[in-house]
Specification:
P-loop_NTPase; Adenylosuccinate synthetase; binds inosinic acid; 31% helix; 12 helices; Adenylosuccinate Synthetase, subunit A, domain 2; globular; ten-stranded mixed beta sheet; alpha/beta; Adenylosuccinate Synthetase, Chain A, domain 1; 18 strands; Adenylosuccinate Synthetase, Chain A, domain 3
């Protein structure tokens, strides 16, 4: 049986939600393995719109097990609110349909406060442009060995010890930033209150997932953000604080690397990013504005306008390698309908040399000038196409050129937000 990892191959917002939903119908288990409620997945099912941040997309489909893996950082209060809002929409979430890894670190209110205080204090150029949801500080506490984890909620003495250990660090930091010391008793009281709401879903995810795999169940690993926001391989320091690339699906759930059979990279037919940081093909002209308007490029979590630019084959070629992508799902091709000419970045020029990859140094990344190849656009609409024959010749050429330049085939082509508007070339779940 095949297990599939879905990862964003650019800076996030590639349209993973629709593809994950499409694939989750054929999976038995859907697992999140990194990130937190900085992610925003919008699903449209039978005309109903579901907005998810922390919950795996599988929760809205009956008969599946949804899993939050240890690679995630979890805000328990946000999760309970999200569960409530899904319940109001008629979807019941129970310990039979949701499991949270016992070793998942929690995001506490102090993490969000620290995240926002740092961003406010940073000068222009030093800001990361985070979602302000405490993701970075929560991961810092994880590697600093001072997290409160899900399992700690079960024992009061442990909980008190964990909170005190975290506050020793946080109160010192807060003093430096001019923030009040943490209200320790208030924090403990709200953790004790939320504990039963979380503990009822807690379990040994690593064990259950491996058992599911052995019994032939199909697992879909649902990535959040995009590979260029990866803490190691992204545009550091303008990145998120987790590993986003596909290898994290293993460490973020407790599966061995051999459990991954197919990596599907989600790739938008142009490029966008939110937040600060280098973006070689960014457009500041009418074309950029048109991409943003046609693509409705506004962040689902923060509502921020996304920066837009031409397709950058250098970046996607690189992320296909670091994530071991077997096939891509190309999304939002229809946004390019009506452009007279379309440009694709095939390399960079830096200090008189031509580069075929993005250099790792931030200072060099910022100075890379894209080398473009021009392609003829198309006037016909590609929206809703369900076969290659429905696509204009110039659009097919564009897709084929992308495959060639990134060195990876198209497995799926998505031509509108509707789930049926998908051209299937390779089924990632083939046995
Ligand atoms: P953080 O993850 O909130 O720490 O934000 C760090 C960077 O990642 C910022 O540039 C955010 O805009 C970006 N980011 C975080 N989550 C997402 C996402 O789901 N889509 C796109 N960008 C994201």
């Amino acid at each position: 049986m095949a297990n599939v990892v879905v990862v964003g191959a650019q800076w996030g917002d590639e349209g993973k939600g629709k593809i994950v939903d499409w694939l989750s119908e054929r999976a038995d288990v859907i697992a999140r393995f990194q990130g937190g409620h900085n992610a925003g997945h919008t699903l449209v099912i039978d005309g109903k719109v579901f907005k998810l941040n922390a919950l795996p997309s599988g929760v809205v489909r009956g008969g599946k097990l949804s899993v939050i893996g240890n690679g995630v950082v979890l805000d328990p209060w946000h999760l309970v609110k999200e569960i409530d809002s899904i319940r109001v929409q008629g979807v019941e979430i129970t310990p039979e349909t949701l499991m949270i890894a016992e070793n998942t670190p929690l995001i506490l209110p102090i993490h969000g406060e620290l995240d926002r205080a740092r961003e406010e204090a940073a000068s222009k150029g030093a800001k990361i442009g985070t979602t302000g949801r405490g993701i970075g500080p929560a991961y810092e506490d994880k590697v600093g060995r001072r997290s409160v984890r899900v399992a700690d909620l079960a024992d009061d003495a442990t909980l008190v010890a964990r909170v005190d250990r975290a506050l020793l660090h946080h109160d010192a930091l807060r003093r430096g930033l001019g923030l009040e010391p943490v209200d320790r008793d208030g924090l403990l009281a709200s953790l004790r209150e939320i504990a039963p709401e979380i503990l009822k879903y807690a379990g040994p995810v690593w064990k259950v997932l491996n058992e599911k795999r052995r019994s032939g169940k199909r697992i879909l690993f649902e990535g959040a953000q995009g590979a260029l926001l990866d803490i190691d391989f992204g545009t550091y320091p303008y990145v998120t604080s987790s590993n986003v690339i596909a290898g994290q699906a293993a460490t973020g759930t407790g599966m061995g690397p051999g459990a991954i059979d197919f990596v599907l990279g989600i790739v938008k037919a142009y490029t966008t990013r939110v937040g600060e940081g280098p973006f070689p093909t960014e457009l500041h002209d009418e074309d950029g504005q048109r991409l943003g308007e046609r693509g409705r490029e506004f962040g689902t979590v923060t509502g921020r306008k996304r920066r837009c630019g031409w397709f950058d084959a250098v970046l996607v070629r690189q992320t296909c390698v670091t994530s071991g992508v077997n096939g891509i799902s190309l999304t939002k091709l229809d946004v390019l309908d009506g452009f007279e000419t379309i440009r694709i970045c095939t390399g960079y020029e830096l200090d008189g040399a031509v580069l075929d990859h993005l250099p790792i140094a931030a200072e060099q990344q910022a100075r890379c000038t894209p080398i473009y190849e021009e392609m003829e656009g198309w006037t016909e609409s590609t929206e809703g196409a369900r076969s290659w024959n429905d696509l204009p010749g110039a659009a097919v050429k564009y897709v084929r050129r992308i495959e060639e330049l990134i060195g990876c085939p198209v497995a799926l082509l998505s031509t509108s937000p509707e789930r049926e508007d998908t051209i299937l070339v390779t089924d990632p779940f083939v046995d």
